[in-house]
UniProtKB/TrEMBL annotation, chain A:
The keyword Cell membrane applies. This is NADH-quinone oxidoreductase subunit K. It is found in: Cell membrane; Membrane. It comes from Flavobacterium psychrotolerans. It is a multi-pass membrane protein. GO terms for cellular component: NADH dehydrogenase complex; plasma membrane. NCBIfam families: PRK05715.1-2, PRK05715.1-3, PRK05715.1-5.
UniProtKB/TrEMBL annotation, chain B:
GO terms for molecular function: NADH dehydrogenase (ubiquinone) activity; NADH dehydrogenase activity; ubiquinone binding. Keywords: Membrane, Transmembrane, Transmembrane helix. One of its GO terms (cellular component) is membrane. It comes from Flavobacterium psychrotolerans. The lineage of its organism: Bacteria, Pseudomonadati, Bacteroidota, Flavobacteriia, Flavobacteriales. Belongs to the complex I subunit 4 family. This is NADH-quinone oxidoreductase subunit M.
UniProtKB/TrEMBL annotation, chain C:
GO terms for molecular function: NADH dehydrogenase (ubiquinone) activity; NADH dehydrogenase activity. This is NADH-quinone oxidoreductase subunit L. It is found in: Endomembrane system; Membrane. The keyword Lipid metabolism does not apply.
Automatic annotation (TrEMBL), chain D:
GO terms for biological process: ATP synthesis coupled electron transport. Residues 113-403 form the NADH:quinone oxidoreductase/Mrp antiporter transmembrane domain. It is found in: Cell membrane; Endomembrane system; Membrane. PANTHER family: NADH DEHYDROGENASE. HAMAP family: NDH1_NuoN_1 (MF_00445). It comes from Flavobacterium psychrotolerans. It is an enzyme of class 7 (translocase). One of its GO terms (cellular component) is endomembrane system. The gene is nuoN. It is a multi-pass membrane protein. NDH-1 is composed of 14 different subunits. Subunits NuoA, H, J, K, L, M, N constitute the membrane sector of the complex. This is NADH-quinone oxidoreductase subunit N. NDH-1 shuttles electrons from NADH, via FMN and iron-sulfur (Fe-S) centers, to quinones in the respiratory chain. The immediate electron acceptor for the enzyme in this species is believed to be a menaquinone. Couples the redox reaction to proton translocation (for every two electrons transferred, four hydrogen ions are translocated across the cytoplasmic membrane), and thus conserves the redox energy in a proton gradient.
Length: 106, 479, 627, 456
């Protein structure tokens, strides 16, 4: 474990995660299908999780990994709620295109 | 026994009036206002007997604000003006029927409470709170019981409210700044401060904005005429009779002593503004079609002169200003009441629709005439005492100020007599003008009596206010 | 004792006023008239007492009633000063006042507001007394403005006619212009000497060593402006002729005998001040002379009987100011007294004529009244001779004194004065001829009603006529009782005495001749040629200009009244609106911003998140840069 | 600590009531329970300590704010009785969710460890997502929920990333350690960025410009009671948490950071007030006014060390006024499809009491004296000028002038317009909540020291 980190270097992990995170962000920004937006958010969260793990190894400290479980659980809960909302939207409007959610404005 | 009693009494009166219900409201309000008047006279005696009638108590520890009510001669004079005019105003309204009277009269008493507080408060924040508080009742009085087209009225009143609030908020900032410097807002601590010239200038200007809008000094006067016109006469009386004086009083009590350097340095500017108000107001008043608007502009002219007097920073100026404040308070209430009396009979405020009242009601005519003469400061009326003193102080600063300010006695006579001629004289009017009722007559007579008495014998008031004014002067000249 | 008497003197007219105001209606016309008259008579009696006292004791009485106004550098008390000057004035104010009250009882009997009329008259007397006996400038100012007020009320007495009201307003405002001057003068005196009390002021000024002559001059000039307003001198004289809108007794009392002399009173009161400012004195003299001439010229062609008298009053006042300007105060006062007699007489006479003709004032519609109303005719004739300055009538002495003084100082002033008095003689007799001689030119039913006025009207006429005949006695050349009497008031009285040489007799002769010339012209024109002034429309040339009073009113209208009203309209319609537009403008701007902002919140999640990310990046990058 | 446990227990209890068919009892019982918890909290006010190796740190600050949250929740629960009359079956769920939301809130202000902070904020947010979308059949509600959910979880992502960076820089989640470390050596650049990202996440929650866009839409779309919850409880919670976060984690906050806060605060109040001017939907208007108030509260962050009590005071006055306002809105807009200002016409005649309450609430928000909102502004201005940011205060003053414009629009509508139709019924709970909350507000105005001295 340790030596791998030494070989590669923490910075690279950070860059990787940042890139992943940005991918997620752009996904959220540019995709209109709600499901895909959810997935993008998941990507963001997972990017962070990965970084957590990397850091925890870097610091030789388990807290980070514990935190990952928290965040995964939370993410799961979030998505559950999100999907529920999505379902009711689909019931009422027959579409899951977030770009159509423009009734509230001004 | 101290001054806080007065405020409590007024507040209780307000609630009692509200609870009394529409039938009794006016009576209860009158009762309480009279009680307060008596109470304030008792206080005056205590004060003259040299007792301490102030009330100071820690209120907020952090920031350090105290509930300080201090009564010196000046405050008492203004307080008496308030407590004397309030019953008159309430009494004058007996001729009218107001829907939801209980709220109406409760608001009047509440406003009296706020204004009395403003005159008494000796702590910056407390003063500011009362200052703001007095705005709310008049806002509702003008809005709900006013006359004329609702939309127009709404714009006028809201403009008035936001305008005055805007001014006073800058005063609040100034106060906070002062608090940073003094660590307290007690007026004595503020007097002790020695601020740099630039600080004083900014603070002075912040105060000036608040007061110039309230008084009003041109060019901040545009709210005035419309609100006076739209508000119910009672509201107009409260505004012009007492509320204006809050601004002038504050100039003397707060602005000048706290920022004397600025006051001295830019004295000419502010005197000039005041005098410009005199001339401007008088000229605009010349050709007003609406009686109340004309009176509004006349009062703009008068307060301009008063402000000019206050800004001379001389004993005469301040004393004249205070005397004139009180005198103007009574006259203007009387005049607006006269307008109301006419309105009750002719149901119009348009001058061109009046005329020929004299041959219908000589009594009313003579009272109205006396008020007109008082407002043009005929010697032996109270206003002459004030105006003379103010003009004298102006002449001491610069003779031209006196000459320009003195045009008020010419222009004033011009527009007032012109108004009188078209309102009262001429061929007998077609419309019926029932002679003044007992209540109306009584109100008028009281006002007239006050004007004449203090016109011939202003000594009591002068003796009352002079010491505190001298004290303020020493504060002004402390550095 | 004296205090109480003084208070009686001062307050009885006020009492009469109050009674008439509150109970006048109930009292009934005659009774309210009697009350009014009595109250003035009482003060006259008291005045007589004080007169006797002062002639014996020669000591002025000073009474402090109470403290009034306090100014930083001095206190003003409400006090009375009864000295030779004020008592002299009181004598003819209350004396002639009571006569005119008496006259009014009958004259105003047909008016339903008689009690109001008497109330006003009493009020006027009250204020006039205050003016005269006030012990300091400010108490005097009370009376000063008070009489102005009463004149306003009385000119506009018939308030249903807006033209009368305009005249009243005009009078009040013109007076106010003067009052401002007076106030300014008061301010300066107050600043210079820290007192406004006459006696202390006198000692202060005469005692002072290094006086600031500049400010003194300004003060004197300002005071003179005040006098101009009250005493109808150029340029503030135009209100007086219009003031004839009031009932005739009013014109007699206020606008001939008493109020208009207030300016002269004030200047003689402050003679010690004016003596120190020769420039101002010159101005006064010149203004006085010009006024005398101008007014006289206008008087030449007027056809309204009261207008003629009004202009003659202005012209006579001009002569008095001429005297004042030359420092001959007692001469001016002498003329004031005599003028009070004969001008009051003339006005009351004209009143009785108008009364007889049922309100007709145009001389072109009169004539031949000699037979109908002999007493009126006789009395007016006496008065006219007096004003024309015919020996030995009162006017002769006083006017002659003035002219001699003028001659001694400046020949030009003398010429002007003489010309003015020649004209006076002319238009007075023009008036007499047109009114009383030849045959009646009025309507038929007027002719039927022609009658001599009742005794209540004629009695005062007779008294006044007698006075204007013998009035000259009070100050004959050589042994002038008046100068003796006034000696304590004025400094240079003794030098002013002129020796009666042939040269003076010559001047008298010239003056007399001039008077006769004037009368002669009038005689030839209106008796011999029997010509009557033609209709207004036919008047042309110079006489048209004169008839229209040199168009001064019109000029004032164009120069002052119209511009101010135009300005008022401009302010009302443009400045006011634009200022408030400025205020509302701010509100509009914010509202507009709000409106634009609504478009920004377009409800699209994409945009929202985009903004989110943008903000994020901005902050992060800023932090990087800040590092 | 006990507070947190008790609250969670109460939440479970609510669900149990449903099972035991004690639906009637739910609201009263919950309120009683919350009152008891409030008493507990107040009694423990001065006992500070840390639990579960610093997962939770209890001190005056957390206690004070927790009590405020509990009070607000009591009001909200009180309102829900009337609000959920129609679908009683959901009552227990909604109330339970509110209680859990409260537990999240309490966790947020008493966290000692970033994990706790994260959990707290998620509990809060997720419950809010649910509440926002709780009106299933109404598309607007769905849309509101969706918007809130998407952006909320996006924000959580940011926060998470921030936490991660902080952890990376410090190697610990414990705030105490972090703050010590932050003081000591010079730090990797990730640390300030991490702080910034967490802050931004919180700024989103309190709806500060430019992260505010969700607020108006969500406020408008959500059921009124949820809006009330968001605009009072959630906003206050987020604000308090942000304050605690910054004050605990790095006391010596950098100048650049202060500049950011100044800019954001100015932007928030200006945008909020100006946007509110033209709104006709009252909920939306209050959303924007909430944004401006967030801007005001941000001023507290300029003097972190001293302004805790000021923030507490501002928060309590603002939220109390908000509760009062929303209770009236709930009453007026019951069975209305929208909350348009038209519904308020003539309220002054038809129901003077509630009209007066709403007027008072609005005046308090506008900062008119004697209502506590004035003092709240005053103390904040005072702090800010002391910190040397006169400019912000001037802008704030100008903004309060603007704000009067729209607050009075509503007042005018109530008093000068003619009523469109009578509203029947006088629901006790609404009256109680409205009157009590405004009364509390005024009391705070008369005796500001009550609150101002708590944390002094």
């Amino acid at each position: 474990m340790n030596n791998i980190l030494n070989q590669i270097g923490i910075e690279n992990y950070i860059f990787l995660c940042v890139i992943l995170f940005c991918i997620g962000v752009f996904g959220v920004l540019y995709r209109r299908n709600a499901i895909i937006v959810f997935m993008s958010i998941e990507i963001m969260l997972n990017a962070v999780n990965l970084l957590f793990v990397a850091f925890s190894t870097y610091h030789q400290d388990a807290q980070g990994q514990v935190f990952v479980f928290f965040s995964m659980a939370v993410a799961a809960a979030e998505v559950a709620v999100g999907l529920a909302i999505l379902v009711s939207i689909f019931r009422n409007s027959g579409t899951i295109d977030v770009a159509n959610l423009k009734n509230l404005k001004g | 026994m101290n001054v806080s009693l007065l405020l409590i009494l007024l507040l209780v009166g307000a609630f009692a009036t509200y609870l009394a219900g529409d039938k009794l409201a006016s009576k209860v309000a009158l009762f309480f206002s009279l009680a307060v008047l008596g109470c304030s006279i008792v206080l005056l005696n205590h004060f003259n007997a040299g007792e301490n009638i102030s009330f100071i108590n820690q209120w907020i520890s952090q920031p350090n604000i105290s509930f300080a009510l201090q009564a010196d001669g000046l405050s008492l004079a203004m307080l008496l003006l308030t407590t004397a005019l309030t019953p008159l105003i309430i009494f004058s309204s007996f001729g009218n029927e107001y829907k939801n009277a209980k709220s109406f009269y409760a608001l009047i008493l509440f406003m009296a409470f706020a204004m009395a507080g403003t005159f008494l408060a000796a702590d910056g924040l407390l003063y500011y709170i009362f200052w703001e508080l007095s705005l709310i009742p008049i806002y509702f009085i003008a809005l709900l019981w006013g006359n004329g087209d609702a939309e127009e009225r709404k714009t006028a009143v809201v403009k008035f409210f936001i305008y005055t609030l805007a001014g006073s908020l800058f005063m609040l900032v100034a106060f906070i700044y002062l608090y940073q410097r003094a660590g307290s807002l007690l007026i004595d601590d503020l007097y002790k401060l020695d601020l740099t010239a630039s600080e004083q200038l900014w603070i002075f200007l912040a105060f000036f904005l608040a007061y110039a809008i309230k008084i009003p000094i041109i060019p901040f006067h545009t709210w005035q005429a419309k609100v006076y016109q739209k508000a119910p006469t009672v509201g107009t009386m409260l505004l012009s009779g007492i509320m204006l004086k809050m601004g002038l009083y504050s100039v003397i009590r707060w602005q000048l002593p706290i920022a004397p350097l600025a006051a001295k340095q830019y004295m000419f500017v502010f005197i000039a503004l005041g005098i410009a108000g005199v001339i401007y107001g008088s000229i605009v008043a010349l050709r007003q079609k609406d009686l109340k608007k004309l009176l509004a502009y006349s009062s703009l002219a008068h307060v301009g002169l008063i402000a000019a007097g206050a800004y001379t920073l001389t004993l005469d100026g301040l004393r004249g200003a205070v005397l004139q404040m009180i005198a103007h308070g009574f006259v203007v209430v009387g005049l607006f009441f006269a307008a109301e009396i006419i309105f009750r009979r002719y149901d119009t405020r348009t001058i061109s629709e009046m005329g020929g009242i004299r041959s219908q009601s000589p009594k009313f005519t003579s009272m109205f005439m006396i008020l007109v003469l008082a407002s043009v400061a005929l010697p032996s009326t109270f206003n002459f005492v004030g105006e003379f003193t103010v003009l004298y102080s102006l002449s001491q600063i610069n003779i031209w100020f006196a000459i320009l300010g003195g045009t008020t006695i010419i222009l004033g006579a011009y527009y007032m007599l012109k108004m009188f001629q078209h309102v009262m004289l001429g061929e007998t009017n077609k419309k019926i003008f029932a002679d003044v009722t007992l209540n109306e007559g009584l109100t008028m007579v009281i006002i007239v009596a006050v004007l004449f008495f203090f016109g011939m014998y202003p000594k009591p008031i002068i003796d009352l206010i002079t010491p505190s004014l001298e004290n303020i002067l020493t504060q002004i000249n402390r550095n | 004792m004296d205090t109480n008497l003084a208070l009686v003197l001062l307050l009885t007219p006020l009492l009469g006023f109050l009674i008439n105001v509150f109970f006048g209606k109930k009292l009934g016309k005659t009774f309210s008239g009697i009350v009014g008259t009595l109250s003035v008579v009482v003060s006259f009696a008291v005045t007589l007492y004080f007169f006797g006292y002062i002639t014996v004791a020669k000591q002025p009485i000073q009474i402090i009633l109470f403290d009034w106004i306090s100014i930083s550098n001095f206190n003003l008390s409400f006090g009375l000063l009864l000295d030779q000057l004020s008592i002299l004035w009181l004598l003819f104010v209350t004396g002639i006042g009571s006569l005119i009250h008496l006259y009014s009882i009958s004259y105003m009997h047909d008016d339903e507001k008689m009690h109001t009329f008497f109330a006003y008259l009493n009020l006027f007397v009250f204020f006039m007394i205050t003016l005269v006996i006030g012990s300091n400038l400010l108490v005097m100012f009370i009376g000063w403005e008070g009489v102005g007020l009463c004149s306003y009320l009385l000119i506009g007495f018939w308030h249903k006619n807006q033209e009368y009201n305009d005249a009243a307003k005009k009078a009040f405002i013109m007076n106010r212009i003067g009052d401002l001057g007076l106030l300014i003068g008061i301010f300066i005196l107050g600043m210079l000497f820290s007192t406004l009390d006459f006696t202390t002021l006198k000692t202060a000024i005469s005692g002072a060593t290094n006086l600031n002559s500049y400010w003194l001059g300004v003060a004197a000039f300002a005071l003179f402006i005040g006098a101009c307003g009250k005493s109808a001198q150029i340029p503030l004289y135009t209100w007086l002729p219009d003031a004839m809108a009031g009932p005739t007794p009013v014109s007699a009392l206020i606008h001939a005998a008493t109020m208009v002399t207030a300016g002269i009173f004030m200047i003689s009161r402050l003679n010690f001040l004016f003596d120190l400012t020769p420039e101002v004195q010159n101005i006064i003299a010149i203004i006085g002379a010009i006024t005398a001439l101008v007014a006289a010229t206008i008087g030449l062609v007027q056809n309204d009987i009261k207008k003629v008298l009004a202009y003659s009053t202005v012209s006579q006042l001009g002569l008095m100011f001429l005297a004042l300007g030359l420092g001959a105060y007692q001469v001016a006062i002498f003329h004031v007294v005599t003028h009070a007699f004969f001008k009051a007489c003339l006005f009351l006479g004209s009143g009785s004529v108008i009364h007889a003709l049922g309100g007709e004032q145009d001389m072109r519609k009169m004539g031949g009244l000699k037979k109908a109303m002999p007493i009126t005719f006789m009395t007016m004739l006496v008065a006219s001779l007096a004003i024309a300055g015919i020996f030995p009538f009162a006017g002769f002495w006083s006017k002659d004194e003035i002219l001699i003084t003028a001659f001694e100082h400046n020949i030009v002033l003398w010429v002007i004065g003489s010309v003015a008095s020649i004209m006076t003689a002319f238009y007075m007799f023009r008036l007499m001829y047109l009114t009383f001689f030849k045959e009646f030119r009025g309507t038929e039913d007027q002719k039927h009603h022609l009658h001599e006025s009742p005794s209540l009207i004629t009695a005062p006429l007779i008294i006044l006529a007698v006075l204007s005949f013998i009035g000259g006695l009070i100050s004959l050349p050589k042994n002038s009782w008046l100068n003796e009497y006034l000696a304590p008031i004025f400094r240079k009285v003794t030098e002013e005495e002129h020796t009666l040489g042939t040269f003076e007799y010559g001047l008298m002769a010239i003056a007399l001749a001039g008077a006769f010339i004037g009368i002669g012209i009038a005689y030839s024109k209106y008796i011999k040629q029997n010509s009557v002034p033609e209709e207004d429309s036919k008047i042309t040339g110079i006489s048209k200009v004169l008839y229209n009073k040199y168009y001064v009113d019109e000029a004032y209208d164009v120069l002052f009244v119209k511009p101010i009203n135009a300005l008022s309209g401009f302010f009302r319609d443009y400045i006011e609106t634009s200022i408030s537009a400025l205020v509302f403008g701010l509100a509009k701007v914010t509202n507009e911003l709000s409106f634009q902002g609504k478009k920004l919140h377009n409800g699209s999640i994409g945009f929202y998140l985009f903004a989110f990310v943008l903000g994020l990046c901005a902050i992060i990058s800023y932090l990087f840069l800040a590092q | 600590m006990n507070t947190l446990i008790a609250i969670t227990g109460l939440g479970v209890l609510c669900l149990l009531f449903e099972i035991l068919n004690l639906r009637k009892a739910i609201v009263p019982m919950t309120i009683i329970g919350l009152l008891a918890i409030l008493g507990l909290t107040v009694s423990e006010f001065n006992t500070s300590g840390s639990f579960y190796n610093n997962m939770i740190v209890v001190n005056k600050f957390s206690m004070a704010f927790s009590s405020l949250f509990i009070v607000l929740t009591i009001f909200l629960v009180g309102l829900s009785h009337n609000f959920y009359e129609d679908h009683q079956s959901k009552l227990s769920d909604f109330i339970a969710i509110k209680i859990f939301l409260l537990s999240g809130a309490v966790a947020m202000v008493s966290f000692g460890n970033l994990a706790m902070f994260f959990l707290g904020i998620e509990v809060l947010s997720i419950s809010l997502y649910v509440l926002a979308a709780s009106n299933r059949m109404n598309l607007k509600s769905n849309e509101a929920g969706m918007k809130y959910f998407l952006m909320g979880s996006f924000a959580s992502g940011i926060i998470l990333f921030g936490i991660c960076l902080i952890y990376g820089a410090m190697g610990s989640f414990d705030v105490v350690e972090i703050s010590e470390l932050s003081r000591s050596a010079e730090l990797p650049i990730w640390f300030p960025i991490g702080i910034a990202m967490v802050t931004i996440g919180m700024l989103f929650k309190i709806a500060a410009v430019p992260f505010h866009f969700w607020a108006p839409d969500v406020y408008e779309g959500s059921p009124a009671l949820t809006t009330a919850t968001m605009s009072t409880l959630a906003k206050v919670v987020a604000m308090a948490t942000l304050y605690k976060l910054l004050s605990v984690m790095n006391a010596n906050i950098s100048y650049a950071f202060q500049i950011i806060i100044v800019v954001l605060s100015i932007a928030s109040m200006t945008v909020g007030n100006i946007m509110a001017l033209r709104q006709t939907n009252v909920k939306r208007m209050l959303a924007f006014s909430g944004i401006s108030h967030a801007g005001f509260m941000l001023m507290a962050l300029l003097s972190l060390s001293t302004s805790a009590s000021d923030l507490l005071y501002y928060a309590s006055t603002y939220s109390l006024a908000g509760i009062a306002a929303f209770s009236v809105i709930l009453y007026v807009c019951k069975n209305r499809d929208n909350e348009d200002i038209v519904n308020f016409h003539g309220l002054g005649k038809t129901n003077p009491l509630l009209a007066a309450v709403l007027t008072g609430a609005l005046l308090s928000m506008a900062g008119i004296p004697i209502f506590s909102g004035f003092f709240a502004k005053l103390v904040l201005f005072n702090q800010t000028i002391e910190a040397g940011y006169l400019v912000v205060v001037i802008v704030a003053v100008i903004n309060s002038i603007i704000s009067v414009g729209y607050y009075f629009k509503l007042i005018l509508a109530m008093y000068t317009k003619e009523p469109n139709e009578e509203r029947a019924g006088t629901p006790f709970f609404i009256y109680a909540v409205a009157v009590v909350s405004i009364a509390l507000n005024v009391v705070l105005g008369l005796f500001p020291s009550l609150v101002l001295d708590l944390l002094g």
